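User: I'm curious whether this sequence folds into something compact or stays loose and floppy. Could you predict its structure so I can see for myself?
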Amino acid sequence: MRWIIYTLLACILIAGGDERPFSITRVYGEVTSTTDKDSQPMSITEGQEETAEGTKEISISKDEFDEIVGQLQGMKELLVNMKRDYDIRFKEMQEKIATLEKEKKELEKQKSHILEEDEVTTAGVETKTLETPVAEEEPLPKQTDTSTTSPLPSQALSLSPAESALPSTATPDQSISPSIGQWSPAQPITLWSAGGTYMGLSFIGLFSAAASTAEDLESLETGAHDPIQRGFTVQNLETSFQGAVDPYFYGNAFIIFQIDKEGESFLEVEEAYLTSMSLPLNLQVKAGTFFTEFGRLNPTHPHVWDYADQPLVNGRFLGADGLRNPGARISWIAPTDIYTELFFTVQDSQGETAHSFRNEEALFGREAVETRVRAMEDLLYVPRIATSFDLTEEQTILLGASAAFGPNSTGRDKNTLIYGVDMFWKWKSRYAEGGFPFITWQTEVMGRRFEASEDINAGLPDEVLDNWGVYSQIMWGFKKRWMAGLRGDYVDGEEGATDPLGFERWRLSPNLTFYPSEFSKIRLQYNYDDILGNDTSEHSVFLQFEFLLGTHGAHKF
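Assistant: Here's the prediction. I'll summarize afterward.
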């Protein structure tokens, strides 16, 4: 039996051959974790080998498995949403393409129709020409230069680039039916609309507190809106109404409420005027009652001044309330590369707001005579020219020259001439934020030639009086919302002056302004007044505060 067993064993060895029955075999398959019966089977990647001692198990917890499943579901939902969004966009694009193709076909159809009509017209003309060759040989009736030719409208003769850029409403054509949202002369004019923006309404309050070594501060300050008394002053309460009346005019009205130092209140129409918006040839007309465009400061309101009071020369030559009256003004912007504008204003020359002209309180100690308007020479005429250009990318300069001439109230045929030049320079950093930092420099020089009549009762001769004055101010916006400034004033003495308002004097005024926002302002200013006429000096300190309610239009640069 032993040899039989040996024989069988040899046969088994021979049959195994290369199978190497005692070596470790490669295993493929799935392994189930024995630690967690709920876990799912995991695939074993190809090439992962198992040792003879046991299978290497890969197991994860149920939470991790759920997290993986959740992430996969999230990715699935994201893909579904992306596909839905793509389908929507694709559909919209197809609709746009279809619309454009339809419009293209219509345009091609219209174009072909026009070409056919032109061909028919041309053919008809050619046929007619061939059929009536004699008609061309007949002499045409002689026409005069003015017989049938209609003059072209002035706007068609020369249209500036600025005019051509105006909206269609600037040159309304009644033959064209207005579309929705466009105004037509046939429609009623809307002056007020609570739901729209047809009129800007605002209210500005300007107050100050003052301390001074001068017992009568009003004897130092030349402006009606200046701090004129120790303690508190209501400088200006302004209500403004602004808006487009129609496509042709823009309306402005400024109603002032003031309380004087005696505590009496009064209302005043400071300005109310229309400005044209659609004249050709760069022309513009302004009509109503308004500040005269003389110099830089006079046409502006107190709340836009850089100081708590007006310069000495403005108060002495143009009056406490500035130069303003009813009248009309026409302006023209020259068609040049740089801004150049000419102004010509005609206004009444009488009243307190025409201080150096037919003022009922005659100047230089003389009595006022009759101040009614008798002829055109009794009006006030004010030409002005202004130009502005950039010096560099960060610097701009504006230069102007003005004159105002008209009769004064000291006698018949006695006139006053006020003339002046002004300059405004501004530097603003190219990296400015909210308009800061910046530096401005503004200067005005004025002269006045006053023909004074003889006053026998006062013992004053007939003479010509000349005066001049200047102010120059620098403002430095050194930090956002903060501005510091320094102003110097000088006026020479008036003949026969008996108070500081007429003496030769100069003033130095540093100030500091803080803007909590664009709707409020707090300003601290110090004035040093040296009155050379009576060899005295005064010190004054003003604390000014201002607030704005509503919508107020931007002021002119």
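Summary: Residues 253 and 272 are 4 Å apart (CA to CA). The two ends are 128 Å apart (CA to CA).
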